[in-house]
Fold this protein.
Amino acid sequence: MSLDLSPDLHALIGAVQPADAAAMTRAQARQAQLTKPPGALGALEALSIRLAGVFGTERPHPRGVAVLVAAGDHGVAAQGVSAFPPEVTPAMVANFLADTPYGPGGAAVNALARSVGARVYVMDAGVNAELPAHPALHRAAVRRGTRDLSREAAMTPQETAALILAGAALARRAIEGGADLLIPGEMGIGNTTPAAAISARLLGLDPAAVTGRGTGVDDERLAHKVAVIRTALARTPATDPLTVLAELGGFEIAAMLGMMLQAAALRRVVVLDGFVEGSAALVGVALAPALRDYLFPAGQCAEVGHAAQLAHLGLTPLFGLDLRLGEGTGGVLAAPLLLGAAATLREMRTFEEAAVPGGVEAGGHGRQRTPQD
Ligand SMILES: O=C(O)c1ccc[n+]([C@@H]2O[C@H](COP(=O)([O-])O)[C@@H](O)[C@H]2O)c1
Ligand SMILES: Cc1cc2nc[nH]c2cc1C
């Protein structure tokens, strides 16, 4: 199977350009002059400089935050690789959209998003059931569930391209709706199997090193899951990133890849949540290495294999918390840290502006002035 790039997909990949190095240099110089001991804002300082590179200014001012949850089902779920049945996927989509006394949506991502003022977008990327019409549901399904990756290609090249472009379209919509921080999120019973298969192939690791318990499978199911992934990888020798994605699936992973590429192409931040999102990012960076400049990992998730993904991407997670939920939940929690990092660089005064002694202009940070000065 080969994946001919449609012109639209080709253009999307080509539109991902490196972050603005000159803005990062200016941001670094500005960081050194802000009213604090050098390094006192810890990891926020490096984050703020990366944000300056994304937005092309040493005073970055990101507007809104949006989490884009793509849901899809997986043929491989029939092999018993999850602790939950596939019926959970469409039921959770209904939960993401439900009316509750607190606002739309009764899932973790909805509650967390409300707590930080993030907007939630929901996409049917190919769940098993026909979902009832809902004004807030973005319909992008081209098939109800992928094929079983251990037996045949999970998706055709055309299905893969369609979902990538659908993800990109939803990202554009979120950006038009005011989002500058985009959080791809997912829901799909069985999807840690394709995520682990993609990671094993693209990282060149044994499946056992990147296959975790997902929703909580026991030791026996975990061993079976690893065996299923071994069968899938033995079935397809593919190494080019889009063919790896098509062969191993799934629809929501393709949609998240499209969101990431589009957000980066429009110079917006991609907040990277967990292991399934990480598998989309691996495909994305293999296609467009500059995508890395736009990826901001949230927490270190509990799924084994996440650390290997982040190490490959050269990115450091912002926190622990042992999340393993998906939905974009970790990304939502990371958003205030990123907004805060940008705010320090944008809004803090320099030593000179605030007439605080001890700045670089006044004889060096944190250094007591001596009579010789
Ligand atoms: O992204 C993650 O880090 C992650 C880790 C473990 C589980 N999940 C979620 O759990 C589901 C996949 O788990 P499983 O066991 O069905 O493969 C899917 O709905 C994901 O959103 C997600
Ligand atoms: C209930 C439930 C909610 C989820 N959200 C993301 N993955 C999930 C898996 C399950 C099983």
Notes: The CA atoms of residues 112 and 314 lie 27 Å apart. The radius of gyration is 22 Å.
